[in-house]
Design brief:
Layout: H1 2-27, E1 32-33, E2 36-37, H2 42-51, E3 63-65, E4 71-77, E5 87-95, E6 98-106, H3 113-124, E7 129-130, E8 134-138, E9 142-147, E10 151-156, H4 157-183
Antiparallel strand pairs: 1-2, 3-4, 4-5, 5-6, 6-10, 7-8, 8-9, 9-10
Length: about 180
């Protein structure tokens, strides 16, 4: 009888540990890379990029205003940096002065896809999606993808989904206008 209680207790502990570790990993996705976090303002991001030489940020010449005036892009060339040689080009996309996508391209000569995949899987658990092109981890606020050949992305789900809905509405309006034009011919 004692033996059955011990086995039951061990199974209960193992089950709890397994469930808890899986949910903790899945929910604890990072919301950024190194000292750069999703949701930071443009100025906060610039300050952090200046502090961290790994990114190769050169200042205002790396900043572009995209056609939509609420969108800004910072593009850095880390191959010219004095820090880490693991990064190449990095992109920081802003909408309404909030960082919502971080794209980190890595040097394929210094690190390989499998090493990064294995590390991310160990740290954050099983991905929610695996395709030949990319592996995706996701929680309510962040989507993190490892894309081929060697790109790591962090996406703010709320802002991204808002922009997707906005573009879908805009596309529908364009389609309606186009149809109205065609009908007038």
């Amino acid at each position: 009888m004692q033996k059955k209680k011990h086995i039951f207790l061990l199974l209960l502990i193992f089950s709890y540990h397994f469930v808890f570790s899986q949910s903790t990993n899945h929910n604890s996705l990072p919301n950024g890379f190194q000292n750069i976090s999703l949701g930071m303002s443009l100025e906060e991001t610039k300050e952090e990029l200046i502090k961290n030489k790994d990114f190769g940020y050169k200042g205002e010449r790396d900043v572009s205003l995209l056609p939509d005036q609420q969108k800004v892009l910072i593009e850095t060339d880390a191959t010219k940096a004095f820090g880490s040689k693991f990064l190449t080009r990095c992109y920081f996309q802003f909408y309404d002065d909030s960082l919502y996508i971080i794209t980190i391209n890595m040097n394929k000569e210094k690190i390989d896809h499998y090493s990064i995949f294995k590390t991310l899987k160990e740290k954050y658990g099983e991905p929610v999606s695996v395709t030949p092109e990319k592996t995706t981890w996701k929680n309510d606020s962040v989507t993190m993808t490892l894309e081929k050949p060697l790109t790591l992305k962090y996406i703010d789900n709320e802002v991204y989904n808002q922009l997707q809905q906005y573009s879908a509405v805009q596309k529908s309006a364009e389609e309606i206008t186009q149809q109205m034009f065609l009908d007038s011919l």
